[in-house]
Predict the structure.
Amino acid sequence: MFYGCGEFLGNGISLLYTKLKWHKARLVRLPFYARNQKNIKYDNGFTTGRYCRVTAGKNTIVQFGKNFIMGDFCQLEGLGGITIGDNVLFASKVFLGTTSHGNYKGEMQSSPEIPPNERILKSVPIIIGNNVWVGNNASILQGVKIGNGVVIGANSVVTQNIPDNTMWGGVPARLIKVWNEETHKWELKK
């Protein structure tokens, strides 16, 4: 991969920052925003693109497994807690949101007459398994659990739990393909 002088210098500064502040990480590219950094846990191989933001709650943890990589402009809002497994790859502009302004299900729903910023915050954790690939501009919403070996297509909005070894895409995301253990191929949903 060829870098221009400016990007080469920027990567050098980011590498120095990484070794000083994120000891186990591979590379944290600047600018990088970490809110409540003491509650952000990561393992070896942690790598970020530029302009990424990770927010942990005061009483919740954002946990990254080994060899986690995210592209540029990713935003992980983890006030409700986020757990990500090993060998997970996020493309650019991936969004994870564990919190919503208001409650929109069940008995005690939020009134549209209350300004959104004054509505009760509802937070539910997101859990992502191992060997997951999330495409550009995908959004994963609160309370979702994603299994191992999953592929999420670009521009998808994930609103429900996803089982192991499946491929999902669309708005809202729907099942597209399933990994066949016998043929070792992705097969269209039947």
User: Anything to note?
Assistant: The chain has a mean pLDDT of 94. The longest helix spans residues 5-21.
